[in-house]
Write a structure and sequence with these properties.
The protein has one domain: Pnp Oxidase, Chain A, CATH 2.30.110. The chain is 31% helix and 30% strand. The protein has helices spanning 6-24, 62-78, 88-98, 119-126, 163-173; strands spanning 38-41, 50-53, 56-60, 105-114, 129-140, 143-158, 189-200. It is globular.
């Protein structure tokens, strides 16, 4: 199994931290590209692939999975009787513990929840393969840079008794009533994307420096 490169892992982790910090400062919401890759699925009998933007995130290393499941459970229990707006700092701190270190994550896996049971699920039941395209902005030595990469993966559909599903669901529940989420009553399945190939799609300039 292949690994997500270090620079891509760093972007995924730092983007999540920075997004939460911006929300905490009261800044306007922006499109969260590190969380919403375009996911392509396909079957042999169809002429075109199916593409959709899905909420996909990193998964903890196996040895840390239960620790973060229990942390998220404890956090949700702690804020159960609080006003949702007043519990923001407690919930964010739990997520910051997860995203405090790139080494907390398994670079061979990504995960997400299924909500609508539509074409993506139908395709993956027939052909458990998917391609994810990430594209976003990153800061490089005080200037704006761009990052893009394609993750080709085999996909495992998991049920509600799966530990990865439990982690994904708890992570969603920590923020399901906040304004950047559309509340959903149920999440019937989860997906584990097992990395088979990563392709660098980042753009670069072919022009010479204007100062040269």
């Amino acid at each position: 199994m292949k690994r997500i490169p270090e620079n891509c892992m760093k972007w995924l982790v730092e983007s999540r931290r920075n997004y939460l910090k911006r929300i905490m400062r009261g800044e306007p919401l922006t499109y969260f590209s590190a969380h919403l890759p375009v996911v392509a699925t396909w079957t042999e009998e169809e002429e075109f692939v199916n593409m959709t933007a899905k909420g996909i995130g990193l998964l903890p290393r196996k040895e840390l999975l239960m620790y973060f499941i229990e942390l998220f459970q404890e956090t949700l229990s702690r804020v159960k009787n609080m006003k949702w707006s007043e519990s923001w700092g407690i919930r964010v701190n739990a997520l910051f513990k997860l995203y405090s270190d790139t080494e907390n994550f398994d670079p061979t896996k990504l995960g997400g929840l299924e909500i609508f049971e539509g074409k993506t699920l139908a395709n993956l039941r027939k052909n458990p393969k998917a391609s994810l395209l990430y594209a976003g902005i990153k800061e490089e030595e005080g200037r704006v840079g761009y990052i893009s990469f394609q993750v080709n993966a085999s996909v495992e559909i998991v049920n509600k008794d799966n530990e990865y599903y439990k982690f994904l669901l708890l992570g969603r529940k920590l923020f399901e009533f906040d304004k950047f989420h559309l509340y959903q009553p149920d999440y019937p399945y989860g997906y584990i994307f097992k990395v088979e190939e990563v392709r660098d799609k980042s753009p670069w300039s072919r022009a010479g420096s204007r100062d040269s």
